[in-house]
Structures are given as structure tokens and as C-alpha cells.
Amino acid sequence: MNSYGLPLETALSTSQKLQLxxxxxxxxxxxxxxxxxQGFSNTHIAKLVTKRPEIFQFRVEKVRPKIQxxxxxxxxxxxxxxxxxxxxxxxxxxLSSQIKPSYDFLKMYLGTNExxxxxxxxxxxxxxxxxxxxxxxxxxxxxxxxxxxxxxxxFIMFQPRGIxxxxxxxxxxxxxxxxxxxxxxxxxxIHALRVTLSMSNSxxxxxxxxxxxxxxxxxxxxxxxxxxxxxxxCSEEKIKSISDFFVNTLKLEPxxxxxxxxxxxxxxxxxFRPRYNVLKLLESKKLLKxxxxxxxxxxxxxxxxxxxxxxxxxQIPNLMELYRGNIPASKISL
Length: 334
Hints:
transit peptide, mainly alpha, MTERF_sf, transcription regulation, transcription termination, MTERF
């Protein structure tokens, strides 16, 4: 409680995992002092001792080389304590047997320390996972399938968790994407693979069934997935909600979404409803030239604000409030 600032209950639980004799108390204090000298705050140290108290019984000589290696390779400032708190196992693994080989492996594909740091920030376990059992075989599989090295690098950067999965899971995902007609050499393949790996088979199948329940054919689902794989990453509720909005509110055919599946990636309450309310009001005031709203929903936020909100504030002073959802359309007046 005094050294780490832990509340009584946590202190009691943590102390049961430690040997509190004189020698070990001195060692714990040495480790704590060393970590503070490397930028660890009291909060970082309290979290660390709660998650992995045994680290504070190591000799400083065991901890120092790993900390220095991380600092030398881009983990400076707050990045260092944040990484260690996120994955304390880094201080338990061997520098030469685990940490350095994993780092060198990542550097072989990512090239720069900056990119490696970005990937590790996304998935701190990259430095402590099974290099020979999962990481290397997964990358070897992608390369053997014909995925270009620059696409492999993108995959590691943006979906690092994917290379930590079991190899049979990766192989299944690769085959699933190929069945949808995307070849490993295609730029979109990696994006489709990321989506496929992000969900279980049961979730994947449920989403396919949702699309079918909305009248989509297998060919249409395949076409949409090839065009924008993220359409299958959307929640089932969102797929239904946006489809309902397009069909029942905008009075459009489902083929509009099939042709441009990116519609499914936009927010219903952050984009579609606010813009629809503004456009309907402008239309009722005869201030809108466009007859169809569909493509106006895809404009950038800045362009939509400039052309359809700010431009008409002199005529409709409360238009911004309507757009922000602060007042209903019925209370707008010229």
C-alpha cells in the first residue's frame, strides 16, 4: 500500500503472490526505482505490480537490457511504460530468444522502427507470441499464396492480430476470400482477409443470411464483398437498419446498395439521418436543385456542410441545429 499506492484489498491479493522477506523487498524496491527512472509513473507501476507482481522480484540486471532494447528501437517517452503495462510478459521473456527475434522478423517486412512501433501498439503481443509456430507460418502461407510483400506489410501493420492466429484459421480465411473471387495478388485481397479473420464462422454465416433475407443473391453478396469487403464487417443490426432506410425512406431499390456497398459503412445517426433531414427541409423550401439525395449522402463532411448547411443559414438560421440533431425539422421556420 505504501510503496505502490494499492488499495487494501488489491494489496492483500497481490502480496500473496510475492515473497516478502528482506532480500525480496530490497529487490522489489530496486526494480520499482529503476522503472521510475525510465519514465514509469506511480500509476503505471501500480498497474504492473497488480498484473504481474513477480516482475518486481526480478533482478534489475534482468530487466534493464529489455528496457534498453525497446528504447533503442523506438519506444521512448510514454510509449515504453504503456507497452509494458499492456503486455508485462515482455519483461519475462528472453531478449535473445524471443524479443529480439520477433522484432527482427517484423522489421524484415515492415522496414522501419516507426512502422514496427505502430504495429506493436495495435497488438503488444507481437513481441511475445509464438514466432515459429504461428507468426512465421502465417506469413509464409500468405506469400506462398501469392500475396505481394507490400500487401503482407500492410496486413501486419493494420491487422497484426491476424498473424497471431492459428495457421489453420488463416488458411481457412484465405480459401474463403478466394471463393469470393478475389485473388491473393489483388490489392483488395488483404482487406477482405482482414474482414474475414475479424469474425467467427458462425458470425460470418449469420451476416450472409441477413443479406439473403433482404433479397440479395449469392452473386450480389459476392459482388459487394469484392467491391468493399467492409460491408461484411458491419453489424447485423446496421445492415438491416441502413437497408430499411434506403428502401422505405429513400424509396430506392436494394440494387443501389449492392452497386455501392460503401453505403453500409456510413453511420445511420451520424450521417444519413442528419443529412436526410437537412435535404428534405431544403427541398420543401425549394432550395434544393438535386432531385435525388443518394449521392449527396456520400459527400465529404466539409463539402456537405459548406454546400447544404452553411450556405443556407441566412435563410434558415436553425439549419445547423437541425443537422446536429438538437431540434426536430417541425420546429424549423424561415
